[in-house]
Design a protein that fits this description.
The chain is α/β, with parallel strands linked by helices. It has 15 helices and eight strands.
């Protein structure tokens, strides 16, 4: 389903906003009293917003998560952390711009920050490979978390990718191995880890940075083993059923929280994180601080035990005694 169809209500909402702006402009410039009309339109606009944005479908949330205007990892780093120093390279092949990472201070505490990085326009997306990491991106992440462990720095990860890059060159350089190695490294890391899904959380490319003591998720973000389009193409041989597959995949923050796969949903501004950046940064920082303070107060032994228990209890399964 094309973006223009699934988000049609946004165009209607923007049209109402435009009309309201025009009325206010006429009132200001022509000195004509439209106060009653403006009040009526404002009430209608607020009602429309409440009705539409509070009842987004799974597919509409997919579209919201993919909006290019949403704040990226570097936006959160600049807004929440102090003194960020980006570190480059995997000490093996090259630097991967699709994953950024480095050291910073979070409310005065030294931390390591890592995240997927998308671009704002075509040129930036080509440079960042649309936020899809190559193996060297995951090897860079591994290097940085090992360094964090050595210097006893907590790790904070930001997840926003449609998936790891599936190209031939990525496979030639060991994409699957690099992701698996990152998963292993994160699961055994002797320092607190918090992961925050800020947009798209796609497949193993996202999961590689999702092994953490706490996993948080913005309310319009998504997290899934496969994209709705990929699922529809494989199972239905028809990408036109992507909206249907989005429902079945249970990829919204609300679905994942109900299954205990994430620890907390961070509420966005009603119209999306991109519509009120300061409010978004403020609540993300507050929520991060709550979990950060709790984790740094625990012993490493307790952290590792809880992390292991968390990973072992993911999913629902049953035992069939007839096979015994």
């Amino acid at each position: 389903m094309p973006f223009k169809d699934s988000m049609k209500f946004e165009r209607d909402y923007q049209e109402l906003q435009k009309k309201l702006s025009e009325l206010k402009d006429i009132t200001l410039k022509k000195k004509i009293d439209f106060s009653q009309e403006i009040a009526t339109l404002e009430a209608k606009l607020e009602s429309f917003k409440e009705e539409k944005y509070k009842t987004l479908t799974a597919w509409q949330k997919v579209q919201m998560a993919r909006r290019p205007e949403r704040p990226t990892t570097m936006d959160y780093i600049e807004a929440i952390f102090d003194g960020f120093i980006e570190l480059h390279g995997d000490r093996c092949f090259r630097d991967d711009p699709a994953i950024v990472g480095g050291i910073a201070r979070y409310n005065g505490v030294p931390v390591t920050v890592i995240g997927h990085q998308k671009g704002r326009d075509t040129n930036q997306n080509l440079k960042r490979n649309f936020g899809m990491p190559h193996p060297e991106g995951y090897r860079k992440a591994c290097r940085l978390v090992k360094q964090a462990e050595k210097f006893k720095r907590p790790v904070i990860c930001f997840i926003d990718t449609q998936g790891a890059y599936p190209g031939v060159e990525a496979e030639e350089r060991g994409q699957g191995w690099a992701i698996a190695a990152t998963l292993m490294q994160m699961s055994l890391l002797k320092t607190p880890i918090i992961s925050l899904i800020i947009g798209e959380g796609g497949s193993g490319g996202a999961l590689a940075l999702g092994i953490a003591d706490r996993v948080l998720m913005l309310s319009n973000a998504i997290y899934s083993v496969i994209s709705p389009e990929g699922c529809s193409s494989i199972l239905c041989k028809d990408t036109g059923r992507s909206d249907e597959m989005a429902d079945h995949l249970k990829l919204t923050a609300q679905d994942l929280y109900s299954m205990a796969l994430i620890d907390e949903i961070i509420p966005e501004p009603l119209e999306g994180a991109h519509t009120n950046l300061n409010k978004t940064y403020k609540i993300v920082k507050e929520k991060l601080q709550t979990h950060f303070d709790d984790l740094v107060s625990r012993s490493i032994v307790e952290l590792l035990e809880k992390r292991y228990e968390r990973l072992r209890t993911i999913g629902i399964y049953g035992e069939d005694e007839s096979f015994e």
